[in-house]
Amino acid sequence: MSVLRMTTNVQAWRLLQADSPPGGACVREAAPLVIPLVAPLDWPQDRGGDSKSVEGAIEDLARCCGLRPAGLLAECASRPGRRVHAWLAVDRAEFASVSGVVGQGGAQAAAAAGVILLLESSPRGGSLPRLSIPWLLVRPDRRRLGVGRLLVAAAIDHAWGLGASQVSIDTLDRWPEAVAFWRGMGFSSN
What is the pTM of this model? Predict the structure, then answer.
């Protein structure tokens, strides 16, 4: 088993996406309420609020993907020299049912269909930050519906906004589905 590092050129990736048909991120046609809603993950504790609903969504997603929730929550934490940006995908139908009750926090109260983390690490010496995607998780029952593609698009668009020229990912070569997904998203081996 070995780790396969893959990267994409952010500008080329964005140009490729611009040439895709509208809604090209979806693998198959879906009713408007089935296409997931992707929103930046808002950590209420960053504003002095309660993070239980956000943590609950992440814990639930980790469990259904066979991961330890505490480990994934630890990966979501920013610390000096390491800033984590995250996006959550929820089903629009479920979001619609909870958003009226919980207002703007509806995306985080609904069950997560997927999550992606974009890690911005600042090397010593003041050089440009490095950007990588350490985690992309999609619920097993939501896979192959375009959720992962929409999450990757959100992360790469954000990386572009940060001025990044490259984003990298690491995956295991024993996961051919993951390697094929990332290649299909425009990433290539170094």
Answer: 0.73
